[in-house]
Protein backbone atom coordinates (compact mmCIF):
# COMPACT_ATOMS: atom_id res chain seq x y z
CA UNK A 1 0.00 0.00 0.00
CA UNK A 2 2.78 2.46 0.93
CA UNK A 3 4.50 1.77 -2.41
CA UNK A 4 1.28 2.63 -4.24
CA UNK A 5 1.01 5.89 -2.29
CA UNK A 6 4.61 6.80 -3.13
CA UNK A 7 4.13 6.03 -6.83
CA UNK A 8 0.84 7.93 -6.87
CA UNK A 9 2.46 10.99 -5.28
CA UNK A 10 5.34 10.93 -7.77
CA UNK A 11 2.91 10.60 -10.67
CA UNK A 12 0.80 13.43 -9.29
CA UNK A 13 3.76 15.78 -8.85
CA UNK A 14 5.15 14.93 -12.30
CA UNK A 15 1.84 15.40 -14.12
CA UNK A 16 0.99 18.54 -12.19
CA UNK A 17 4.29 20.20 -13.07
CA UNK A 18 3.88 19.22 -16.73
CA UNK A 19 0.38 20.70 -16.79
CA UNK A 20 1.30 23.95 -15.03
CA UNK A 21 4.36 24.42 -17.26
CA UNK A 22 2.20 23.96 -20.36
CA UNK A 23 4.05 20.85 -21.50
CA UNK A 24 0.87 18.87 -22.11
CA UNK A 25 -1.29 20.08 -24.99
CA UNK A 26 -4.78 21.12 -23.86
CA UNK A 27 -6.22 19.82 -27.13
CA UNK A 28 -4.71 16.35 -26.98
CA UNK A 29 -6.63 13.61 -25.15
CA UNK A 30 -4.80 10.76 -23.45
CA UNK A 31 -5.82 7.61 -21.59
CA UNK A 32 -4.85 6.11 -18.26
CA UNK A 33 -3.39 3.12 -20.07
CA UNK A 34 -1.14 5.21 -22.34
CA UNK A 35 -0.05 7.37 -19.42
CA UNK A 36 0.69 4.33 -17.26
CA UNK A 37 2.90 2.92 -20.01
CA UNK A 38 4.74 6.22 -20.43
CA UNK A 39 5.37 6.57 -16.69
CA UNK A 40 6.00 2.85 -16.28
CA UNK A 41 3.42 2.79 -13.52
CA UNK A 42 0.50 0.53 -12.64
CA UNK A 43 -2.90 2.08 -13.23
CA UNK A 44 -4.12 2.00 -9.62
CA UNK A 45 -1.74 4.62 -8.17
CA UNK A 46 -1.92 6.60 -11.42
CA UNK A 47 -5.71 6.73 -11.17
CA UNK A 48 -5.39 8.22 -7.69
CA UNK A 49 -3.08 10.92 -9.07
CA UNK A 50 -5.48 11.68 -11.91
CA UNK A 51 -8.40 11.92 -9.48
CA UNK A 52 -6.48 14.52 -7.45
CA UNK A 53 -5.74 16.58 -10.56
CA UNK A 54 -9.37 16.37 -11.60
CA UNK A 55 -10.43 17.53 -8.13
CA UNK A 56 -8.14 20.55 -8.49
CA UNK A 57 -9.78 21.46 -11.79
CA UNK A 58 -6.63 20.88 -13.85
CA UNK A 59 -7.92 18.02 -16.01
CA UNK A 60 -11.27 16.72 -17.26
CA UNK A 61 -12.51 13.24 -18.11
CA UNK A 62 -14.11 12.88 -21.53
CA UNK A 63 -17.26 10.89 -22.23
CA UNK A 64 -15.28 8.26 -24.14
CA UNK A 65 -12.95 7.60 -21.23
CA UNK A 66 -10.13 9.89 -22.32
CA UNK A 67 -8.53 12.61 -20.22
CA UNK A 68 -7.68 16.13 -21.31
CA UNK A 69 -5.96 19.09 -19.68
CA UNK A 70 -8.46 21.85 -19.04
CA UNK A 71 -8.15 25.00 -21.10
CA UNK A 72 -8.41 28.07 -18.90
CA UNK A 73 -10.25 30.69 -20.94
CA UNK A 74 -9.97 34.46 -20.58
CA UNK A 75 -13.31 34.73 -18.79
CA UNK A 76 -12.19 32.22 -16.19
CA UNK A 77 -8.83 33.95 -15.77
CA UNK A 78 -10.61 37.22 -14.99
CA UNK A 79 -12.71 35.43 -12.37
CA UNK A 80 -9.60 33.79 -10.90
CA UNK A 81 -7.94 37.20 -10.55
CA UNK A 82 -11.06 38.57 -8.85
CA UNK A 83 -10.99 35.77 -6.26
CA UNK A 84 -7.23 36.08 -5.84
CA UNK A 85 -7.64 39.78 -5.15
CA UNK A 86 -9.85 38.98 -2.15
CA UNK A 87 -7.81 36.04 -0.84
CA UNK A 88 -4.36 37.52 -1.33
CA UNK A 89 -5.44 40.84 0.13
CA UNK A 90 -6.44 38.98 3.29
CA UNK A 91 -3.20 36.98 3.22
CA UNK A 92 -1.14 40.18 3.01
CA UNK A 93 -2.98 41.68 5.99
CA UNK A 94 -2.36 38.55 8.07
CA UNK A 95 1.24 38.34 6.87
CA UNK A 96 1.94 41.87 8.14
CA UNK A 97 1.44 40.61 11.69
CA UNK A 98 3.54 37.47 11.32
CA UNK A 99 6.29 37.70 8.71
CA UNK A 100 9.91 37.67 9.97
CA UNK A 101 11.66 40.98 9.35
CA UNK A 102 14.88 39.50 7.95
CA UNK A 103 13.09 37.29 5.43
CA UNK A 104 10.90 40.20 4.32
CA UNK A 105 13.96 42.41 3.83
CA UNK A 106 15.64 39.65 1.79
CA UNK A 107 12.61 39.39 -0.49
CA UNK A 108 12.58 43.16 -0.95
CA UNK A 109 16.21 42.92 -2.09
CA UNK A 110 15.27 40.22 -4.60
CA UNK A 111 12.44 42.43 -5.85
CA UNK A 112 14.78 45.38 -6.31
CA UNK A 113 16.89 43.33 -8.72
CA UNK A 114 14.07 43.43 -11.26
CA UNK A 115 13.78 47.22 -11.03
CA UNK A 116 17.00 47.49 -13.02
CA UNK A 117 16.79 44.23 -14.99
CA UNK A 118 13.68 44.61 -17.13
CA UNK A 119 15.24 42.27 -19.72
CA UNK A 120 15.53 39.38 -17.26
CA UNK A 121 14.56 35.90 -18.43
CA UNK A 122 10.83 35.26 -18.20
CA UNK A 123 11.25 32.01 -16.26
CA UNK A 124 13.55 33.74 -13.77
CA UNK A 125 10.91 36.38 -13.12
CA UNK A 126 8.18 33.77 -12.79
CA UNK A 127 10.26 31.91 -10.20
CA UNK A 128 10.70 35.14 -8.24
CA UNK A 129 6.98 35.96 -8.64
CA UNK A 130 6.19 32.54 -7.17
CA UNK A 131 8.48 33.23 -4.21
CA UNK A 132 6.75 36.55 -3.51
CA UNK A 133 3.19 35.25 -3.59
CA UNK A 134 4.12 32.03 -1.78
CA UNK A 135 5.87 34.03 0.94
CA UNK A 136 2.85 36.20 1.61
CA UNK A 137 0.43 33.26 1.52
CA UNK A 138 2.54 31.01 3.75
CA UNK A 139 3.12 33.71 6.35
CA UNK A 140 -0.60 34.37 6.62
CA UNK A 141 -0.58 31.52 9.11
CA UNK A 142 -3.62 30.01 7.40
CA UNK A 143 -2.70 26.76 5.57
CA UNK A 144 -6.04 26.46 3.76
CA UNK A 145 -5.84 30.05 2.56
CA UNK A 146 -2.30 29.45 1.29
CA UNK A 147 -3.39 26.27 -0.51
CA UNK A 148 -6.33 27.99 -2.20
CA UNK A 149 -4.11 30.85 -3.37
CA UNK A 150 -1.53 28.41 -4.73
CA UNK A 151 -4.15 26.42 -6.63
CA UNK A 152 -5.65 29.57 -8.16
CA UNK A 153 -2.23 30.80 -9.25
CA UNK A 154 -1.53 27.45 -10.89
CA UNK A 155 -4.85 27.55 -12.73
CA UNK A 156 -4.15 31.10 -13.91
CA UNK A 157 -0.84 30.01 -15.38
CA UNK A 158 -2.66 27.50 -17.56
CA UNK A 159 -4.17 30.42 -19.50
CA UNK A 160 -1.85 31.31 -22.38
CA UNK A 161 -2.18 35.08 -21.94
CA UNK A 162 -0.38 35.03 -18.58
CA UNK A 163 2.86 34.51 -20.49
CA UNK A 164 2.26 37.86 -22.20
CA UNK A 165 2.77 39.75 -18.94
CA UNK A 166 6.32 41.11 -19.27
CA UNK A 167 6.04 44.27 -17.16
CA UNK A 168 8.71 43.09 -14.74
CA UNK A 169 9.59 46.55 -13.39
CA UNK A 170 5.97 47.47 -12.66
CA UNK A 171 5.30 44.17 -10.94
CA UNK A 172 8.48 44.41 -8.86
CA UNK A 173 7.50 47.93 -7.77
CA UNK A 174 4.08 46.65 -6.75
CA UNK A 175 5.61 43.73 -4.85
CA UNK A 176 7.92 46.09 -2.98
CA UNK A 177 4.94 48.27 -2.03
CA UNK A 178 3.28 45.21 -0.47
CA UNK A 179 6.45 44.08 1.28
CA UNK A 180 7.15 47.55 2.71
CA UNK A 181 3.76 47.54 4.41
CA UNK A 182 4.36 44.01 5.67
CA UNK A 183 7.76 45.11 6.95
CA UNK A 184 6.11 48.05 8.72
CA UNK A 185 3.53 45.77 10.33
CA UNK A 186 0.59 47.60 8.70
CA UNK A 187 -2.13 45.00 7.93
CA UNK A 188 -4.67 47.23 6.18
CA UNK A 189 -2.06 49.04 4.10
CA UNK A 190 -0.55 45.68 3.14
CA UNK A 191 -4.00 44.46 2.11
CA UNK A 192 -4.59 47.54 -0.03
CA UNK A 193 -1.15 47.27 -1.66
CA UNK A 194 -1.86 43.66 -2.63
CA UNK A 195 -5.32 44.55 -3.94
CA UNK A 196 -3.75 47.35 -6.00
CA UNK A 197 -1.15 44.92 -7.37
CA UNK A 198 -3.60 42.28 -8.54
CA UNK A 199 -5.93 44.96 -9.93
CA UNK A 200 -3.05 46.31 -12.02
CA UNK A 201 -2.12 42.80 -13.20
CA UNK A 202 -5.68 42.35 -14.41
CA UNK A 203 -5.68 45.77 -16.10
CA UNK A 204 -2.41 45.03 -17.92
CA UNK A 205 -3.72 41.69 -19.17
CA UNK A 206 -6.94 43.27 -20.40
CA UNK A 207 -5.01 46.07 -22.10
CA UNK A 208 -2.80 43.52 -23.85
CA UNK A 209 -5.87 41.59 -25.03
CA UNK A 210 -7.57 44.65 -26.49
CA UNK A 211 -4.37 45.93 -28.11
CA UNK A 212 -3.38 42.60 -29.70
Structure description:
The radius of gyration is 19 Å and the shape is globular. It is mostly helical. It has nine helices and two strands, in the order H-H-H-E-E-H-H-H-H-H-H. It has two domains: 2-69, Winged helix-like DNA-binding domain superfamily/Winged helix DNA-binding domain (Arc Repressor Mutant, subunit A); 74-211, Four Helix Bundle (Hemerythrin (Met), subunit A), CATH 1.20.120. The protein has a two-stranded antiparallel sheet with strand order 1-2. Keywords: DNA-binding, Transcription, Transcription regulation. This is GntR family transcriptional regulator.
Termini separation comes to 52 Å
- What is the rounded Rg? 19 Å
Estimate the global geometry from the Cα principal axes: globular
Largest sheet: 2 strands, antiparallel
Oligomeric state of the chains in view: single chain
User: What is the tally of beta strands?
Assistant: 2
Low-pLDDT windows of residues: none
What is the topology, as strand order, of the major beta sheet? Answer: 1-2
Average of per-residue pLDDT values: 90
Query: CATH architecture of the largest domain, please?
Result: Up-down Bundle
CATH topology of the largest domain: Four Helix Bundle (Hemerythrin (Met), subunit A)
How many alpha or pi helices? 9
**CATH homologous superfamily identity of the largest domain:** GntR ligand-binding domain-like
* Total number of domains: 2
State the name of the first-level CATH class of the largest domain: Mainly Alpha
Report the helical percentage. 55-70%
Structural class: mainly alpha
Order of helices and strands: HHHEEHHHHHH
